[in-house]
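Here is an idea for our session: we take a single protein and study its fold together. Once you have written the record down, we can walk along the chain together.
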Amino acid sequence: MADLTGRVALVAGGAGAVGEGIVRALLGAGAQVVVPSRNPDRLAELRTRLGEPAGLHGVIGDIGAPGGADGVAAAAVEQAGRLDAAVAAVGGWWQQSDLVDVTPSEWQRVLENNLTTHFLLLRAVLPRLREEQGSSYQFVIGDSADSPVPGASLSTVTAAAVLGLFRAAAAEEHQVRVNALYLAPVLTRNRPTGPAGWLSAEEVGAYAAWLAGDSGAAVRGQVVRPDKNGPG
């Protein structure tokens, strides 16, 4: 188990099913965790499911709106005092039609939710992470870029685009360790059963905690594919 005592992590998408497992693991490793959401009810539900942990900070804000990510990052530092790690578990699965049947407006909407939001968060958070030694930024990306599913074309397109965004950021960033968790389907509270090889959200969280801590300090610019063997 990683030791993140005294560190602060921002988990964008932390109120979601996969993000919740990441939040749980980071809290279990001793970190204070900041979770932004547009919806205060989702933050209240997350706090209840996690057992009202003292180290959990909720921030109301929309990281996909103009200036929203900057406001969230500033609020995170104001509430918790610093920022040592960020995990971007934003976006979602899309499976509605064949590619040629996607309307331009739907194309734009999905790109904004699954790619532009990643960009806005990265742009807002990286400068604050540079203020702390050993800081890290993690993209969470579904593996649909390599495993296309018929009818889920925009999930394939956006996953590939976010991989490109990660690679560009990792190549340019020299202070903050930038990595990507590249995920096959995950077992969550919304999908509690599946094939034997699927990881739980909490197991994904163990990888996120490892990458955020001293044990993952040598990992930089890597696409990490979590598996049942565990991190390290």
In short: Helices lie at 17-28, 40-49, 68-80, 104-129, 153-172, 201-212. The chain has a mean pLDDT of 96.
